[in-house]
Amino acid sequence: MIFEDIKNIEDLQEVSKEVAWQHFEKLAAFIFIENNFQVETGKVKTSNKKRRQYDVIARKNNRTFLVECKKWAGNRYRLSALKTAIKQHKERSEFYRILTNENVTPIIVTLIEEEILFYEDVPIVPILKLNSFINEEEKGINPMQDMQDEPF
Question: How far is 130 from 145, CA to CA, in rounded Å?
Answer without folding.
Answer: 17
